Amino acid sequence: MSEKTPTQQVSEWLAALGAALERGDAEGAAALFGDDSYWRDLVAFTWNITTAEGNARVRQMIEQAVIPMKPSGWQLEGEACEAGGVTEGWIRFETDVARGYGHVRLIDGKAWTLLTTMTELKGYEERRGPTRDRGVEHGVHPGRKTWLEQRRQEEAELGFLTQPYVVIVGGGQGGIALGARLRRLNVPTIILEKNARPGDNWRKRYKSLCLHDPVWYDHLPYLPFPEHWPVFCPKDKIADWLEMYTKVMELNFWGSTECKRAHYNNAKQEWVVEVVRHGKRMTLRPKQLVIATGSLGVPNMPSVPGMERFTGDLHHSSQHPGPDGYQGKRAVVIGSSTSAHDICAALWEEGADVTMVQSSATLVVRSDTLMERVFGPLYSEAALKAGITTERADLTIASRPYRTLPALQIPLYAEIKRRDADLYARLEKAGFQLTFGEDESGLGVMGLRRGGGFYIDVGASDLIADGRIKLKSRVRVERIEERSIVFTDGSALPADLIVFATGYGSMNGWVAQLISQEVADKVGKCWGLGSDTRYDPGPWEGELRNLWKPTHQEALWFHGGNLYMARLYSLFLALQLKARMEGIPTPVYGLGPVHHMA
Amino acid sequence: MSEKTPTQQVSEWLAALGAALERGDAEGAAALFGDDSYWRDLVAFTWNITTAEGNARVRQMIEQAVIPMKPSGWQLEGEACEAGGVTEGWIRFETDVARGYGHVRLIDGKAWTLLTTMTELKGYEERRGPTRDRGVEHGVHPGRKTWLEQRRQEEAELGFLTQPYVVIVGGGQGGIALGARLRRLNVPTIILEKNARPGDNWRKRYKSLCLHDPVWYDHLPYLPFPEHWPVFCPKDKIADWLEMYTKVMELNFWGSTECKRAHYNNAKQEWVVEVVRHGKRMTLRPKQLVIATGSLGVPNMPSVPGMERFTGDLHHSSQHPGPDGYQGKRAVVIGSSTSAHDICAALWEEGADVTMVQSSATLVVRSDTLMERVFGPLYSEAALKAGITTERADLTIASRPYRTLPALQIPLYAEIKRRDADLYARLEKAGFQLTFGEDESGLGVMGLRRGGGFYIDVGASDLIADGRIKLKSRVRVERIEERSIVFTDGSALPADLIVFATGYGSMNGWVAQLISQEVADKVGKCWGLGSDTRYDPGPWEGELRNLWKPTHQEALWFHGGNLYMARLYSLFLALQLKARMEGIPTPVYGLGPVHHMA
Question: In angstroms, what separates the C-alpha of A122 from chain B's closest C-alpha?
Answer without folding.
Answer: 18
